[in-house]
Specification:
32% of the residues lie in helices and 25% in strands. It is of the alpha/beta class.
C-alpha cells in the first residue's frame, strides 16, 4: 500500500526528489486560484485507468471541474500511459490543461478509493472484466459514475448493472456511460433528418433479410491517439477482459439506433427488443502485428488457446446481431482489423430506410475516408427537391452553413468544417452533457431505460452467438 504522487513532473523537479510532495501533472505555471473549491465543483476520481479514454475526458479544460484529480490504480505501464497523456495535455503549447494527479498505488486501490471518497465522480475506462463490479461498488458508496463503454460484457454483468441502476436511483447518484458517437455531426444530422416527415417519411420496419436499419463500424488495433502510436495492453485481445466486439464497440452502434430512431423514448428491453440471430468470427493477427500494438514479443498464456500455427492469434474481433427494436428490423455489425488504409481510420456505416428516402452515412475511399451523409430519395423530383430545401433551411438556424448538393442517386449533405470536431473532442462534449445532468440532479427520463436496453441487446446477442 503506497500513497504517492507519481513522477509526472518536469525533469528538474523530479531530480530534486520532490515527487512525493508536488502534485503530479501540475503545470509549473498553474495559478493557485485555478484550483476550484466551490461545493458545487465536480471532483474527479480516476479508477484503474487501463484505456486511453480515461485521459480523453480530461483533454479539455473545464472550469466546473476541480484541477486536482485523485487516481487509484495498481502501478504499471497502463497507469504510466494514462499519466503520460495527462502530462502531454498539461504541457501542450495551445490551451494547456492544469491537472494535478494525486495518485495512490497499491493492491487495495479499490478499497482505498471507497474509503477515502475524495471525489464525487469516478471515471472508469479500463479492463472490462472488472468494470461492472467497480460500478456497483462506487454507486453503493454514493459516488456518481461516468463509465466508458461497455459497462457490461456478459449476461451476468448485465444483471449486476441492472442492480446498480436501481441502487443509483435510491442513492440519488448518476450512472452514465460515454457515448461519443452522439456528438459526431453526420450522426446528429442523420437523426434530425429522420424526424422530418417531408424528407424521410416514416421509418420502414423492413424484414430479417431486408432490415429497416443497417449499421456497421470497423475499428483498428493499430492507431494513433493524441498524435502518438497507441500501445494496447495484452488483455485488450482477450474477450473475457475486453469483451467480444458486439458487447464492446457494438454498444455505440446499438445506442445510435435507439437514439436516432426512437429519441426521447422510454424503452422497455423486456418488451421492445427481440434478438433473432447473432454470430461471431475472428480476425487473424500475426505475432509481429501483436508486438507492434502491445510491445510484447510473445502471446500471453491467456491468449494461447486462440493461437494457431504458433504465430497467428485468432482474435475475438467481429460480431453481428440481427434484432427488432419496437418492430424495426436492425442489422448491427462490429468489426476489427489490424491497421487502417493510409490516410484513413475507424470507419462508420449507417443506413436508415424511410418511406420517402434513405439516409446513408458512408466513410469509404470515395468519401476520402471522411463520414459523409447522403439522402437517397425514392422519388427524386422537383417536389421532393423543394421539400428538402425547406427542411435544410430549418436546420440552418442550429447548424449554420449546412446545405445539400446533388449527386448520383440523390443528395450529399455539405457540412461546414467547424462542426467536424473529431473523435477525441467528443469526450469533452460528453463530459459537458454529464455535468449538466449533475447540476440538474438527474438524467433525462429515457436515458436509464435506454442504457438497459442497449446492454441487454449486446449481452443477449452475445449469449445467442456463443450458443453456437
Amino acid at each position: 500500500m503506497q500513497n504517492t504522487t507519481l513522477h509526472r513532473l518536469p525533469l528538474a523537479i523530479a531530480m530534486l526528489g520532490l515527487a512525493a510532495i508536488v502534485p503530479a501533472c501540475q503545470s509549473p505555471n498553474t495559478p493557485t486560484d485555478q484550483v476550484a473549491t466551490d461545493s458545487t465543483t465536480v471532483k474527479l476520481i480516476t479508477l484503474d485507468p487501463g484505456h486511453f479514454h480515461a485521459a480523453l475526458v480530461q483533454k479539455t479544460v473545464n472550469p466546473d471541474i476541480d484541477s486536482v484529480v485523485h487516481v487509484y490504480a495498481p502501478g504499471g505501464p497502463e497507469l504510466d500511459a494514462h499519466l503520460g497523456l495527462i502530462k502531454q495535455y498539461n504541457e501542450r503549447p495551445e490551451n494547456p490543461t492544469h491537472w494535478r494527479e494525486e495518485v495512490y498505488t497499491g493492491a487495495d486501490y479499490l478499497d482505498k478509493m471507497l474509503a477515502d471518497k475524495k471525489g464525487n465522480v469516478v471515471v472508469l475506462a479500463g479492463n472490462n472484466r472488472q468494470k461492472t463490479d467497480y460500478i456497483q461498488k462506487a454507486v453503493a458508496a454514493g459516488i456518481n459514475v461516468l463509465g466508458d463503454k461497455p459497462m457490461a460484457i456478459t449476461p451476468a454483468n448485465f444483471g449486476l448493472l441492472e442492480q446498480a441502476f436501481a441502487e443509483a436511483a435510491s442513492k440519488k447518484v448518476l450512472l452514465y456511460d460515454i457515448m461519443t458517437e452522439r456528438s459526431e455531426i453526420t450522426n446528429v444530422l442523420q437523426k434530425e433528418l429522420a424526424h422530418m416527415p417531408a424528407v424521410f417519411g416514416e421509418q420502414q420496419k423492413g424484414t430479417a433479410k431486408d432490415p429497416g436499419v443497417v449499421i456497421e463500424s470497423v475499428h483498428f488495433f493499430y492507431k494513433f491517439v493524441s498524435g502518438k502510436a497507441l500501445t494496447r495492453p495484452t488483455w485488450f485481445f482477450d474477450p473475457a477482459q475486453q469483451g467480444e466486439a458486439i458487447a464492446d464497440v457494438g454498444t455505440h452502434l446499438i445506442d445510435l439506433v435507439q437514439w436516432e430512431c426512437f429519441p426521447d423514448t422510454v424503452l422497455d428491453y423486456k418488451k421492445d427488443i427481440q434478438i433473432t440471430t447473432a454470430r461471431l468470427w475472428p480476425t487473424p493477427i500475426t505475432l509481429s502485428q501483436f508486438t507492434a500494438v502491445t510491445k510484447k514479443d510473445s502471446f500471453p498464456d491467456f491468449l494461447k488457446g486462440d493461437v494457431v500455427k504458433d504465430s497467428i492469434l485468432q482474435t475475438h474481433a467481429n460480431g453481428e446481431i440481427n434484432y427488432t427494436l419496437k418492430g424495426v428490423h436492425v442489422k448491427m455489425i462490429a468489426r476489427w482489423d489490424y491497421k487502417a488504409p493510409e490516410g484513413s481510420g475507424d470507419t462508420h456505416y449507417s443506413l436508415l430506410k424511410g418511406s420517402l428516402a434513405n439516409l446513408e452515412i458512408k466513410q469509404g475511399k470515395e468519401e476520402n475516408y471522411q463520414p459523409t451523409l447522403y439522402i437517397r430519395p425514392a422519388k427524386n423530383d422537383t417536389v421532393y427537391a423543394q421539400a428538402l430545401q425547406q427542411a435544410i433551411g430549418t436546420l440552418q438556424s442550429r447548424y449554420a452553413g449546412v446545405s445539400v448538393e446533388k449527386v448520383a442517386n440523390g443528395y450529399k449533405v455539405v457540412i461546414p468544417q467547424t462542426f467536424k470536431t473529431g473523435h477525441e473532442a467528443h469526450f469533452g462534449e460528453v463530459m459537458q452533457r454529464f455535468l449538466q445532468y449533475l447540476k440538474a440532479g438527474k438524467l433525462p427520463d429515457w436515458e436509464v431505460p435506454g442504457m438497459l436496453a442497449k446492454y441487454y441487446t449486446a449481452t443477449k446477442g452475445l449469449e445467442i452467438a456463443t450458443r453456437k
